[in-house]
Amino acid sequence: MPVIAIVGAGLGIGRAIARIFGARGFRVALLSRDPARQEPTVAALAEEGVEAVAFRADAGDPASLAAGLAAAKQRAR
After folding, report:
1. In this model, does residue 77 exceed pLDDT 80?
2. Which one of 14, 20, 45, 49 is least enclosed by Cβ atoms within 10 Å?
3. Is 3-76 CATH 3.40.605.10?
């Protein structure tokens, strides 16, 4: 199953992108500075049958972004 990583995920555009790709069979990795804030989105997507997980990543910090993407990749295996 393909995975989409949404960097800087939020309640607006990030959630909309997650819904669109999730409805098309993608698993969703939501990357943001505060993954706990993504839990409402993770729960809403689960109700729609979309597998989503939140990960910590700061798009302004290359090391943080790399770590977040690596964690999402590891989880996708």
Report:
1. no
2. 49
3. no
